[in-house]
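Residues determine shape. Next comes a sample protein:
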Amino acid sequence: MNPARDPAPESAPLSGDSGGSGGSGDSGTGSAFGPLGFQLVLLRRMADHQPGLVEDALRELGVGKAEMREANRRWQAMLRAPGRRGAGPRYRSVLGPPEATGERRIGDLSCEASAWRLPLWPDLRFEVLAAPGGAVWNEWLVRAPGASGPELRTVEDLRPWSCTVDEVARAFAPARPLEGTAPTRWRLAFTAPDAAGERREYVVEFTWGLLQRFV
């Protein structure tokens, strides 16, 4: 599923899982590939539009650009490997048991939602939506249950990494989904006021569900 085509699916509360975020705290470049390596994969794609924020995140994680590139190389190799796992088992092998699972409704269809905590974004969760047969429909960052999202009233409130696809779609409805430039990217077109109250049309781009830039 392209989330830009349905940015705010109807959700049911997720039930807690005793497994927590799970996984090993590896560097992303050793023999194991755990939560740190996966965060570097997300950052590698975000670096195309927000290199400054990514550099800050790398310093917080205590790694450099070389480790980020190596983590991304290993992730791509996992995706292309013969006999590779499905997306659901792959995320469990990298991130451990999900923090929470539950059912999501998208129109008349239901799917399983699994959510993992990532240290870089404590107020967000990495969510995977899977069909009953296991096929993954969507993989993106969403606001964590109970976490306060930003107040999006004007276009000036739309700062990089501050909000998710569904938050922008709700704040400036009706938002119009546009095709992204890569499988992990989505765009929304909408009308919003600026600080002076003047309304204009805008297009913003997201990577892994997190706001990156105006287009």
